[in-house]
Amino acid sequence: MLLCEIDSIPQSIQKILAEQGITTLRPSQEKAINAGLLDGNNLLICTPTASGKTLIAEIAAARAILTLHKQALYIVPLVALANDKHQDFTQKYSGTFSIAVSTGDLDSPEQHLATKHLIICTAEKLDSIMRHQPSWIAKVGVVIIDEIHLLNDTDRGPTLEILITWIRKLLPNVQIIGLSATIGNPQELADWIDATLVQDTWRPVPLHIGLLHNHTIDFGK
């Protein structure tokens, strides 16, 4: 398994990773850094499940918070996923920066989020918040969009598309990181958000494709 050292990452972020026992990077993470993750470049990360996309997002968020003294937005499609991310990130980073989750139905600017570093929310909730034009939005340095392929979803897609367009207009210098394991037209999507496409096929567990017939799986040769 090809991994690389993390020497190119700022010391403050290396320390965070070391506390998690991370001393090397996976191929997709190395590619993301080489594509300008730490330089503020927009990136579209299209790699298999469990290949390390979330850590790429965490590094981008940590850079915005610790180096640029900005806020980070982490957009997810589901309330349950937002709560899972909040729990996970709180366990990892609560001693380093503040984390909040916003998913409720309350229609307000959520001004209490102005004091938080990493904000996790659904696209629908962020859309509601931004309609109030809260002043703290101007402090956002990076926007991470998990499951960005849902732009193609008939229910959630339109809201997400408008939200991304709105964010890019209000925050022309914001870094956008899109994450997905399944995008049919990745280069087209990357072009739309002015991002560098990062693709990789490495996965922690090999994927085998076979045919099930009469209770027997034939994996071929």
Task: Note the main attributes of this structure.
221 residues; Rossmann fold; seven-stranded parallel β-sheet; 34% helix; 21% strand; globular
Quick synopsis:
The protein has 221 residues and is of the alpha/beta class. It has helices spanning 11-19, 27-34, 53-67, 79-93, 123-130, 157-170, 186-192, and strands at residues 4-5, 24-25, 43-46, 71-76, 99-102, 118-122, 140-146, 175-180, 196-199, 211-213, 216-218.
SSE order and pairing:
Layout: E1 4-5, H1 11-19, E2 24-25, H2 27-34, E3 43-46, H3 53-67, E4 71-76, H4 79-93, E5 99-102, E6 118-122, H5 123-130, E7 140-146, H6 157-170, E8 175-180, H7 186-192, E9 196-199, E10 211-213, E11 216-218
Parallel strand pairs: 3-8, 3-9, 4-6, 4-7, 5-6, 7-8
Antiparallel strand pairs: 1-2, 10-11
Structural Rg? 18 Å
SS strand fraction: 15-25%
Overall form: globular
Number of helices: 7
The biggest beta sheet reads:
7 strands, parallel
Uncertain spans, ≥5 residues at pLDDT below 50? Answer: none
Q: Give the strand order, joined by hyphens, for the main sheet.
A: 5-6-4-7-8-3-9
First-last Cα distance: 23 Å
Query: Would you identify the CATH architecture?
Result: 3-Layer(aba) Sandwich
**Total E-strand runs:** 11
Q: In CATH terms, what is the fold-level topology? A: Rossmann fold
Kindly give the count of domains. Answer: 1
Mean pLDDT: 89
Please give the CATH class: Alpha Beta
Give an overview of the whole structure:
The chain is globular. The protein contains seven helices and eleven strands. It has helices at 11-19, 27-34, 53-67, 79-93, 123-130, 157-170, 186-192, and strands at 4-5, 24-25, 43-46, 71-76, 99-102, 118-122, 140-146, 175-180, 196-199, 211-213, 216-218. It has one domain (4-202): P-loop containing nucleotide triphosphate hydrolases (Rossmann fold). The chain is of the alpha/beta class. The two termini are 23 Å apart. It has a seven-stranded parallel beta sheet, with helices on both faces. The chain is 34% helix and 21% strand.
